[in-house]
Amino acid sequence: MEKKSRVGLFVTCLIDLVRPRIGFSVIKLIEDAGYEVSVPDRQTCCGQPAFNSGDTQGAHVLARKFVNEFSEFDYIVVPSGSCAGMIKTHYVEAVSGDRELRRELTTLLPRVFELTDFLLRVAKVTELSSNFEGRITYHDSCSGLRELGISKQPRALLAKVPGAELLEMKDCQNCCGFGGAFAVKYGAISTAIVDDKIKNIHGSGAGAVVLGDLGCMLNIEGRLRRKGDVRTQVLHIAEVLAGES
Asked: Which pTM was predicted?
């Protein structure tokens, strides 16, 4: 029997602590694609909050931790454009004074993939054992789009879901207003941005908005509910692709 390639799942702290069901959907998708999945149990944060706040040393420590915990795997998959963007585009800067760690990252980073990019380009998924009856619209989360070029991948995969009809919203690539600490520091601006996003979701005619970052999910869903919308679904793309939405 041919040995399966090993995938290390960086599940992200938000998914682990707030919506663990998304993590199980991710595992199902990767296993259905023919890979062996492991979830290192000592993993924590990618270091983005520290890095964005100017704590480069804190991000450095977490980059070293990531390398130690994931270097053994054939691939590392991250179900978040935000966390994957931090790892793939900012780790080298965060460890700029550590020549040995930079060398290790040079070897490791090509094996790190955002979930939909992995499923489409590496696993080459052609069909999904899922079904979704209804209209959906897709929100392009900022980090995945601008740092990793994640745009066509999720849409190509959603097109393989029987029953799902994708309706593009206006300004689908505009920010949802979350931005981590931005939503806390600039609450009024954040609220105005997410209100625009909600207006465009409603304008699309879709009953569900799908995206690839839990931070954006929580921001959009929270605002929808506070404005009295209890019907529009807010779903991580892994849930839709795995048929567990």
From this structure: 0.95
